[in-house]
């Protein structure tokens, strides 16, 4: 469920959440000249553990030297003192975190600019379509089915069916697909929904085209909804609770 307003800040403090976003050269490849017969239970188990660890690290996109990883494992298993001081470990992790954040910010800025340009073009064309009304806020709506019931206010809860898509048609959420409508306070959703719901009569179905500033803005909502994404919702107002 993605409709509800996002928190004002997202705090990421776990080191793994930072390093797993590093997309660089994967495991450094070296010619394999070592032959080990995996005959004993311990040998086979050791290989499985190493293989699983390597798959995970490779999937995470970490730039690691496989020989140095093996060296660290050998050192720990042999109770050999660490080859790095605590200060060196801290500075390394801090540098990794800094580079990860810089990459993430650059990628988000690039995606944001792309989404803003594509969203503006889509909104401009959509505004020309028959039946589409643009409000002062920039919300665009079109009545698909007329209803004759009451209109909700900000103090109400509503029961709705909806389908949310990106401007390229990608469906990112749908109560229809889940097989049941949802109930929520009118003020408990994104700004474009709050405005749009109050324009609808019970029994009506609207198409809401929501600019990013009335949706999830620069942060996006994760998953398919990137930064500054324009969203389209088909909304069916079933009842006021």
UniProtKB/TrEMBL annotation:
Instruction: Fetch the InterPro entries from UniProt.
Output: PPIase_dom_sf, PPIase_FKBP_dom, PPIase_FKBP_N, PPIase_FKBP_N_sf
Q: Which domain of life is it from?
A: Bacteria
| One Pfam family in the UniProt entry | FKBP_N
What are this entry's molecular-function GO terms?
A: peptidyl-prolyl cis-trans isomerase activity
Q: Which reaction does it catalyse?
A: [protein]-peptidylproline (omega=180) = [protein]-peptidylproline (omega=0)
Q: Which GO terms describe its biological process?
A: protein folding
Q: Which Gene3D superfamilies match?
A: 3.10.50.40, Peptidyl-prolyl cis-trans isomerase, FKBP-type, N-terminal domain
Give the keywords, sorted: Isomerase, Rotamase
Enzymatic class = isomerase
Q: Which residues form the PPIase FKBP-type domain?
A: 155-241
E.C. code: 5.2.1.8
Report the NCBIfam families cross-referenced here.
PRK11570.1
Provide the function of this protein: PPIases accelerate the folding of proteins.
Family membership noted in the UniProt record:
Belongs to the FKBP-type PPIase family.
Q: What protein name applies here? A: Peptidyl-prolyl cis-trans isomerase
